[in-house]
Amino acid sequence: MDQLQAIRAFARVVEAGSFTKAADTLGMPNASLTKAIQQLEAHLRVKLLLRTTRRVSVTPEGAQYYEKTQRLLKELDDVDASFSTAQSRPRGHLRIDTGSSTASMVLLPALPGFLARYPDIRVDLGVSDKHVNLIGDNIDCVIRGGALTDLSLVGRQIGRASWVTCATPAYLREYGMPKHPSELEEGHVIAHYLSTRTGRSLPLNFAKGREKLEIHGTRAVGVNESTAHVAAGLAGLGVIQTFKYAAAPHLTSGALVPIFDKWQPEPYPFYVVFPSNRYVSNRLRVFIDWAAELFAALD
């Protein structure tokens, strides 16, 4: 039995909550993973996992074993990393997740430059506005906006994004150009962005000096994905408030017209987020530094 491999396999099952998902992320057959854990349990003479047709649960002994072996695995990763010189080229596989407009408008256009700089790094980019399970899905990091609330995660702020409130010329001809955000409460319609956590419409926020406003208005349509949200605005379904970088091409072309230039919410902070118990590899470190350079240039 390869005990180290068996320990890593056991840890992935605990984190993923599934033998199949753990086998996929480790790149090994399900049968091999099962055999490795069975051998580990026989070696320890204790049951670590309880497996049914629907779910996998960890025994009390398994939870204790996971906690202790996690510290050992992290120390081993630290030892391995200490033998890598600072000049060594970062290499390996990075799994990253981010929202759709961030992926299409910010990351993907710049990614060729990152891969040219670090040709030995391979990137898998998950694209979704929904929040993912970093540990369970074996993701190295996510790029997300807003306040950090999960204490099991570590975040580094990499930049801030400005907002824009806008609508199509056709919409403004039909409903008129509002002069004050309060006018959106009546006589206008809003294409709202829906929270991926709660499904509720997020209000439009405005600030001018010390004055702040929160506008709900009449909802024409709600969209829970950022690229589709911009598409809703382009379709003339209502006023939208989105990141300026997401709407920039359409503002330049005139397909969308900015309104309330003097009323803008505070710029939105963006973070690279990763699990607090995960070793920050050289490849992840250079990606975070590169992402910080990239987001620093956002308007």
Automatic annotation (TrEMBL):
Pfam families reported in the protein's UniProt record: HTH_1, LysR_substrate
Gene Ontology biological-process annotations: DNA-templated transcription
Sections of the chain in a coiled coil: none
Keyword annotations: DNA-binding, Transcription, Transcription regulation
Keyword Transcription regulation recorded: yes
UniProt KW Nucleotidyltransferase keyword: no
SUPFAM superfamilies documented for this protein: Periplasmic binding protein-like II, Winged helix' DNA-binding domain
Transmembrane domains' residue ranges: none
Recorded GO MF terms: DNA-binding transcription factor activity; sequence-specific DNA binding
Residue ranges of every copy of the HTH lysR-type domain listed in the record: 1-59
Protein family: Belongs to the LysR transcriptional regulatory family.
Designated name of the protein: LysR family transcriptional regulator
